[in-house]
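User: For documentation purposes, I need each entry recorded in a consistent format: the amino acid sequence on its own, followed directly by the corresponding structure tokens. There are two entries in this batch. Please keep commentary to a minimum and don't merge the entries.

Assistant: Recorded as requested. Entry 1:
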Amino acid sequence: MNDINIRKTGRAGRITLARPKALNALSYDMCLAIEAAVDEWREDPGVAMIVLDAEGEKAFCAGGDVAQLYETGQSGDYAFARRFWADEYRLNNKLHGYPKPVISFMQGFTMGGGVGLGCHGSHRVVGETSKIAMPECGIGLVPDVGGSLLLAQAPGRLGEYLGTTGARMGPADVLHAGFADYFITETEWPALIAQLEENGDPFILDKAATPPPAGELADLQTEIDHLFAGETLNAVIAAVTTAKSDFAAETLKILRRGSPLSMACTLEMLRRLRGPGIGMIPALQQEYRYTWRAMEHGDFIEGVRAAIIDKDRSPKWQHHGDVPQSDIDAMLAPLGDNDLNLEENT
């Protein structure tokens, strides 16, 4: 497959995304190829670790190939997207629970599906160009690919802010929010990967890591915690509307652009994921309940149309302002026989 380069080099199983002109967007075939490789290497004694990287300077992976999903969904075929998401989430779960080190090098944009690939491993590396975001509410989805769990585990109310606004995090912000572990200057990455391939020892990353350039989120933490303390979208928007700061004014503009249904469901999902003992599988199952319904009952098709297909940036969302709790519950209700069935560490 030309879009991805999968091979064994030395002691490492190597996966390199190779669609730089498409910002390494993850297609369905790429997803299946990655899963087949990680399954094969799981019991391979010659593979000590998996190393994930990508070609090009602009992006590790800017997300899933939503145009591919839009084409089928617009015609009334929801089965392809549901299968894509189920298989993608299964891969996310496997990476999260993998018994060997999974090391990712995430330059440039890492968004949506890229987060699912790069941010669930054991050793997550960012550099000076790294920008990580979960912008799904802008196209009528919710933060998925296990991103809802990362957001729920972020300090304070950062998860609510990042999940509803899709704000892009630079390297320091990524480390602060818990989406990565190391900042390493990108010019050092090729030599580090070569060493990993040779000796299979991820601890060389500890020696190479340095403090990142200053970010923004740590300084904004107190204000974000206050603005996003409400349990509902209405409460959050009310707090942001009455606040007197440049940050609040800019945040309000972003919240006014997103899908109200998606943002309201995102807040509900994060609240549910903060219970004791919640892990990856409940997060993915909850995400799937939304995405399974997203085309038929949500704002996904309209969101993709406005942002990616027609690019008019004027989506006609189902809701304006308040989202009834009954609509939130309906999007997140169990799917019965269609619920996502995942196994621990598989």
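Entry 2:
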Amino acid sequence: MNVRRRLISGSAIAAVTALGLGTLSACSDSSAASGGTGKFDVVASFYPMAYLAERIGGDHVHVTTLTSPGQEPHDLEISPRQIGGLENSDAVLYLKGLQPSVDKAVDQSPVKTKIDAATLTTLEEHGTEVGGHAAEQEDEHADHDHEGENGKDPHIWLDPVRYAEVAQGVGRAFEKADPDHAADYKKNTAALVKQLDELNTDFKDGLAHTRSKVFITTHAAFGYLAERYGLTEEAISGLDPESEPSGARVRDLQKLAKADGVSTVFYETLVSDKTAKTVAGDAGLKTDVLDPIEGITKKSRGQDYLAVQRANLKALQNALGSK
């Protein structure tokens, strides 16, 4: 494992309020309308799950998403209307441990087909234990509010190989739940997995020969990606991606950047680049976007998962000095 840091938050995700106001679906209609469409009705928890459902289901599914584009998925609180839509659906596709309000709603829902992406691949802990600087850099901010169950890193979709494994599991679940269209689900799954395999090859080849193997990011979401391609992620400590790091942490990262040939501090699409610029500071580093692909908005560098991942690859190649 080549992930050196998983530092962003020691605070817990906001408590779930079943009666609180929530967001409407990321689709054109609300998730309350997820039942009775004449298709296989699937409720997806957030964009990476919706993408799988749409690609695998094709014309046979009607997909609604609980998390709106641009909304931080970890902080989602489901509305009563969304809970009603969930109960009327044929299937729910989610990632247990990422969104507590979704987990609670799914546990209480009568929906027959419950697909937990976390059970379809392997999850790991990405802590402060790995890499040369780890011991001397460990601090009280080691907790991460994006951790899934048992402290495991939930960001599996950013690793094309794990995401392909999830896709295969989703395909099998669709085939079982809607056997009349099993052949199409199988074909669509195979086509998606082929594209994810090609994406994996592009990352592997594109990052095989770089001047540096270390990158700094405000969001510790890229542990699986870093491990897959022999990189090391250095995450900035703080309560959230926009929080100010301590002066000591800034100095540590600036020293590390100089020692490891780091040129760029990454921030995510949907938040301010203020923290990244703080770290870049006097060290003369650049800032750029590395997108955790938790949602697609007008600011995204691409219209779907594959396009944004290729933009991420290009950003990493530029930052790491691809040869």
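Summary note for entry 2:
The mean pLDDT is 82.
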